[in-house]
Amino acid sequence: MSTPQNLEIWLRGPIPGVPPLLQPVAHALLQARDELNAAMQEFPPTLLNERPAGVASVGFHLQHLAGVLDRLLTYARQETLTEQQFAAFNAEVPPLSIAQDTVEKLIQEFNNQIDKALAQLKATDEATLSEVRGVGRAQVPSTHLGLLVHAAEHTTRHLGQLLVTAKWVQSLAI
């Protein structure tokens, strides 16, 4: 039986190689990638820094999506953040360059991070999911599963904000 491509990712079946308990995380991340890529195809770079009513800009969300996913997955691997990750975090403050290729570069960074996340999910032993993982410099306790689920949840939260803001700023530009 073939699966229609117009179905949401979670309705298309299991993602090959991803452990059963992590399928929802993979589905959410892949859905976010599909939606972001579709919504940003024609997004004008000149609107990246627009903040109607003071909301976070599309540019901020585009930067933050890849960066926070990278950081959360680092903690899930029980690693500390690198200086490069701290620098990327500190750079998540608009305004962004409005060069013609800025949007494409940010989308590609997000897509690459989703690919890394899927590889990490595939390499995850389900027996480790209840193990404690520290978050941040204070090493606030979570679990391996908690971090992975939060990575997907945080991604979808910021994607939703990005999608609404993108539509809003585009409507104001007409």
From TrEMBL:
Keywords: Coiled coil
InterPro entries: DinB-like, DinB/YfiT-like
Superkingdom in the source lineage: Bacteria
Domain DinB-like: 29-162
Coiled-coil zones: 100-127
Protein name as catalogued: DinB family protein
Lineage: Bacteria, Pseudomonadati, Bacteroidota, Cytophagia, Cytophagales
